[in-house]
Protein backbone atom coordinates (compact mmCIF):
# COMPACT_ATOMS: atom_id res chain seq x y z
CA UNK A 1 0.00 0.00 0.00
CA UNK A 2 1.30 3.40 -0.97
CA UNK A 3 1.77 5.51 2.16
CA UNK A 4 -0.18 8.74 2.35
CA UNK A 5 1.84 11.83 1.58
CA UNK A 6 2.51 14.20 4.45
CA UNK A 7 0.12 17.21 4.40
CA UNK A 8 1.71 20.47 3.38
CA UNK A 9 1.25 23.85 5.00
CA UNK A 10 -0.34 26.28 2.55
CA UNK A 11 -0.68 30.03 2.45
CA UNK A 12 -4.31 31.00 1.76
CA UNK A 13 -4.33 34.77 2.17
CA UNK A 14 -7.43 36.77 3.05
CA UNK A 15 -6.78 40.27 1.77
CA UNK A 16 -9.23 42.10 4.11
CA UNK A 17 -7.84 40.39 7.19
CA UNK A 18 -4.25 41.00 6.12
CA UNK A 19 -5.01 44.70 5.69
CA UNK A 20 -6.75 44.77 9.08
CA UNK A 21 -3.76 43.06 10.72
CA UNK A 22 -1.24 45.32 9.00
CA UNK A 23 -3.11 48.39 10.25
CA UNK A 24 -3.90 47.39 13.83
CA UNK A 25 -0.99 45.14 14.87
CA UNK A 26 1.57 47.98 14.97
CA UNK A 27 -1.00 50.20 16.71
CA UNK A 28 -1.47 47.64 19.49
CA UNK A 29 2.29 47.22 19.87
CA UNK A 30 2.76 51.00 20.00
CA UNK A 31 0.08 51.33 22.69
CA UNK A 32 1.80 48.65 24.76
CA UNK A 33 5.16 50.37 24.45
CA UNK A 34 3.57 53.71 25.36
CA UNK A 35 2.07 52.18 28.51
CA UNK A 36 5.48 50.77 29.45
CA UNK A 37 7.00 54.23 29.02
CA UNK A 38 4.24 55.67 31.23
CA UNK A 39 4.91 52.94 33.80
CA UNK A 40 8.58 53.94 33.87
CA UNK A 41 7.63 57.61 34.35
CA UNK A 42 5.20 56.75 37.16
CA UNK A 43 7.82 54.55 38.84
CA UNK A 44 10.23 57.49 38.90
CA UNK A 45 7.46 59.73 40.26
CA UNK A 46 6.58 57.21 42.97
CA UNK A 47 10.24 56.95 44.00
CA UNK A 48 10.52 60.74 44.14
CA UNK A 49 7.25 61.02 46.07
CA UNK A 50 8.34 58.49 48.70
CA UNK A 51 11.71 60.18 49.06
CA UNK A 52 10.34 63.70 49.51
CA UNK A 53 7.48 62.64 51.75
CA UNK A 54 9.99 61.03 54.13
CA UNK A 55 11.92 64.29 54.54
CA UNK A 56 11.24 66.93 57.17
CA UNK A 57 8.81 69.73 56.16
CA UNK A 58 10.26 72.77 54.40
CA UNK A 59 9.15 76.22 55.57
CA UNK A 60 7.50 78.44 52.95
CA UNK A 61 8.69 81.97 53.58
CA UNK A 62 8.90 83.60 50.17
CA UNK A 63 8.58 83.17 46.41
CA UNK A 64 11.25 80.49 46.07
CA UNK A 65 10.18 77.57 43.89
CA UNK A 66 9.66 74.35 45.86
CA UNK A 67 9.84 70.94 44.22
CA UNK A 68 6.66 68.88 43.74
CA UNK A 69 5.65 66.47 46.53
CA UNK A 70 7.79 68.33 49.08
CA UNK A 71 6.25 68.45 52.54
CA UNK A 72 5.85 72.03 53.73
CA UNK A 73 5.05 74.03 56.82
CA UNK A 74 3.68 77.57 56.60
CA UNK A 75 2.48 80.21 59.02
CA UNK A 76 -0.20 82.69 58.03
CA UNK A 77 -3.95 83.00 57.62
CA UNK A 78 -6.58 82.12 55.08
CA UNK A 79 -8.10 84.87 52.95
CA UNK A 80 -11.78 84.18 53.60
CA UNK A 81 -12.91 86.78 51.06
CA UNK A 82 -11.80 84.58 48.15
CA UNK A 83 -12.73 80.96 47.72
CA UNK A 84 -12.83 78.69 44.67
CA UNK A 85 -14.76 75.46 44.20
CA UNK A 86 -13.10 73.04 41.80
CA UNK A 87 -15.95 71.22 40.08
CA UNK A 88 -16.32 67.56 39.09
CA UNK A 89 -14.37 66.06 41.97
CA UNK A 90 -15.52 62.78 43.48
CA UNK A 91 -14.95 60.85 46.67
CA UNK A 92 -16.43 57.39 47.08
CA UNK A 93 -18.45 57.82 43.89
CA UNK A 94 -20.20 60.94 45.20
CA UNK A 95 -19.94 64.25 43.27
CA UNK A 96 -18.50 67.28 44.96
CA UNK A 97 -16.00 70.11 44.94
CA UNK A 98 -12.47 70.72 46.12
CA UNK A 99 -12.16 73.92 48.12
CA UNK A 100 -9.24 76.21 47.30
CA UNK A 101 -8.29 79.39 49.19
CA UNK A 102 -5.34 81.78 49.24
CA UNK A 103 -3.20 81.45 52.33
CA UNK A 104 -1.45 84.71 53.24
CA UNK A 105 1.99 83.85 54.55
CA UNK A 106 3.44 85.72 57.48
CA UNK A 107 6.30 86.73 55.19
CA UNK A 108 3.88 88.48 52.82
CA UNK A 109 3.22 86.38 49.69
CA UNK A 110 0.15 84.25 49.12
CA UNK A 111 -0.02 80.62 48.17
CA UNK A 112 -3.06 78.67 47.02
CA UNK A 113 -4.15 75.91 49.40
CA UNK A 114 -6.46 73.06 48.45
CA UNK A 115 -8.31 72.38 51.69
CA UNK A 116 -9.95 69.18 50.45
CA UNK A 117 -13.32 67.92 49.31
CA UNK A 118 -16.94 68.72 50.16
CA UNK A 119 -20.02 66.92 48.88
CA UNK A 120 -22.15 68.72 46.29
CA UNK A 121 -25.69 69.75 47.26
CA UNK A 122 -28.63 67.98 45.66
CA UNK A 123 -29.02 70.61 42.91
CA UNK A 124 -26.50 72.49 40.79
CA UNK A 125 -28.07 75.80 41.79
CA UNK A 126 -26.96 75.27 45.38
CA UNK A 127 -23.41 75.71 46.59
CA UNK A 128 -21.88 73.79 49.49
CA UNK A 129 -21.45 75.48 52.84
CA UNK A 130 -17.76 75.69 53.69
CA UNK A 131 -16.56 76.38 57.21
CA UNK A 132 -14.09 79.25 57.17
CA UNK A 133 -10.99 79.43 59.32
CA UNK A 134 -10.14 82.76 60.96
CA UNK A 135 -6.90 83.92 62.50
CA UNK A 136 -3.25 82.98 62.19
CA UNK A 137 -2.60 79.28 61.67
CA UNK A 138 0.26 76.85 61.27
CA UNK A 139 -0.41 74.88 58.11
CA UNK A 140 1.10 71.57 56.99
CA UNK A 141 0.79 70.15 53.51
CA UNK A 142 2.54 69.02 50.35
CA UNK A 143 3.42 70.83 47.15
CA UNK A 144 1.10 69.65 44.38
CA UNK A 145 1.82 69.29 40.69
CA UNK A 146 -0.21 71.78 38.66
CA UNK A 147 -2.11 69.91 35.93
CA UNK A 148 -2.47 71.32 32.44
CA UNK A 149 -5.62 69.92 30.86
CA UNK A 150 -6.55 71.80 27.66
CA UNK A 151 -10.29 71.30 28.25
CA UNK A 152 -10.27 72.59 31.83
CA UNK A 153 -9.90 76.14 33.08
CA UNK A 154 -9.69 78.42 36.10
CA UNK A 155 -11.62 81.11 34.26
CA UNK A 156 -15.14 82.04 35.35
CA UNK A 157 -17.63 84.68 34.27
CA UNK A 158 -19.01 85.10 37.76
CA UNK A 159 -18.00 88.04 39.94
CA UNK A 160 -19.56 86.47 43.03
CA UNK A 161 -17.71 84.35 45.56
CA UNK A 162 -17.22 81.46 45.84
CA UNK A 163 -16.32 80.92 42.19
CA UNK A 164 -16.71 77.57 40.45
CA UNK A 165 -13.78 76.48 38.28
CA UNK A 166 -12.69 73.21 36.68
CA UNK A 167 -8.92 73.35 37.19
CA UNK A 168 -6.43 74.97 39.55
CA UNK A 169 -4.27 77.44 37.63
CA UNK A 170 -2.44 79.61 40.21
CA UNK A 171 -1.30 82.35 37.84
CA UNK A 172 -4.88 82.87 36.65
CA UNK A 173 -6.40 82.76 40.11
CA UNK A 174 -4.22 85.02 42.24
CA UNK A 175 -1.55 86.48 39.98
CA UNK A 176 0.21 89.45 41.53
CA UNK A 177 3.52 90.85 42.69
CA UNK A 178 3.11 89.39 46.16
CA UNK A 179 1.79 85.99 45.22
CA UNK A 180 3.42 82.58 44.93
CA UNK A 181 2.00 81.30 41.63
CA UNK A 182 4.40 78.50 40.69
CA UNK A 183 2.63 75.84 42.72
CA UNK A 184 -0.18 75.17 45.14
CA UNK A 185 -0.42 73.21 48.38
CA UNK A 186 -2.57 70.24 49.31
CA UNK A 187 -3.31 70.52 52.99
CA UNK A 188 -2.58 67.67 55.40
CA UNK A 189 -5.59 66.05 57.03
CA UNK A 190 -4.37 67.04 60.52
CA UNK A 191 -4.09 70.77 59.72
CA UNK A 192 -6.69 73.28 60.88
CA UNK A 193 -9.04 73.97 57.98
CA UNK A 194 -8.61 70.57 56.35
CA UNK A 195 -11.74 69.08 54.86
CA UNK A 196 -11.91 65.57 53.41
CA UNK A 197 -8.50 65.04 51.83
CA UNK A 198 -7.63 61.46 50.74
CA UNK A 199 -5.13 62.86 48.25
CA UNK A 200 -3.82 60.77 45.37
CA UNK A 201 -0.63 62.58 44.29
CA UNK A 202 -0.19 60.13 41.41
CA UNK A 203 -3.44 59.38 39.63
CA UNK A 204 -2.36 55.99 38.25
CA UNK A 205 0.32 53.64 39.60
CA UNK A 206 3.21 52.19 37.62
CA UNK A 207 1.81 48.69 38.09
CA UNK A 208 -1.52 49.69 36.53
CA UNK A 209 0.25 51.08 33.46
CA UNK A 210 2.21 47.82 33.23
CA UNK A 211 -1.05 45.88 33.41
CA UNK A 212 -2.48 47.94 30.55
CA UNK A 213 0.69 47.29 28.53
CA UNK A 214 0.27 43.53 29.03
CA UNK A 215 -3.31 43.80 27.79
CA UNK A 216 -2.28 45.66 24.61
CA UNK A 217 0.49 43.14 23.90
CA UNK A 218 -1.91 40.25 24.53
CA UNK A 219 -4.37 41.75 22.03
CA UNK A 220 -1.55 42.11 19.49
CA UNK A 221 -0.57 38.47 20.00
CA UNK A 222 -4.17 37.34 19.65
CA UNK A 223 -4.53 39.30 16.41
CA UNK A 224 -1.31 37.78 15.06
CA UNK A 225 -2.43 34.23 15.88
CA UNK A 226 -5.86 34.87 14.37
CA UNK A 227 -4.21 36.15 11.22
CA UNK A 228 -2.03 33.03 10.96
CA UNK A 229 -5.03 30.73 11.30
CA UNK A 230 -7.16 32.77 8.88
CA UNK A 231 -4.50 33.05 6.16
CA UNK A 232 -3.15 29.49 6.22
CA UNK A 233 -4.45 25.96 6.47
CA UNK A 234 -2.50 25.45 9.70
CA UNK A 235 -5.50 24.06 11.60
CA UNK A 236 -6.16 21.40 8.93
CA UNK A 237 -2.44 20.75 8.53
CA UNK A 238 -2.04 20.18 12.26
CA UNK A 239 -5.01 17.78 12.49
CA UNK A 240 -3.84 15.75 9.49
CA UNK A 241 -0.29 15.70 10.77
CA UNK A 242 -1.47 14.17 14.07
CA UNK A 243 -3.22 11.33 12.19
CA UNK A 244 -0.08 10.30 10.31
UniProtKB/TrEMBL annotation:
The chain crosses the membrane at residues 17-36, 216-238. InterPro entries: Surf1/Shy1, Surf1/Surf4. Keywords: Cell membrane, Membrane, Transmembrane, Transmembrane helix. The keyword Transcription does not apply. It is found in: Cell membrane; Membrane. The keyword Iron-sulfur does not apply. It is a multi-pass membrane protein. It comes from the Bacteria. Belongs to the SURF1 family. This is SURF1-like protein. It comes from Gilvimarinus gilvus. The lineage of its organism: Bacteria, Pseudomonadati, Pseudomonadota, Gammaproteobacteria, Cellvibrionales.
Amino acid sequence: MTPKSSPSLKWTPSTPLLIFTALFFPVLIALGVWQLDRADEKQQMETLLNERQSNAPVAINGRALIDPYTRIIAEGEFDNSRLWLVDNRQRGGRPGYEVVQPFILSSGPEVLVNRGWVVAPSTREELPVVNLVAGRQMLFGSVAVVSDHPMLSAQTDSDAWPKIITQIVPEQMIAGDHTVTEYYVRIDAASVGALRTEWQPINMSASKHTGYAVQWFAMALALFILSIFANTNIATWWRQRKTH
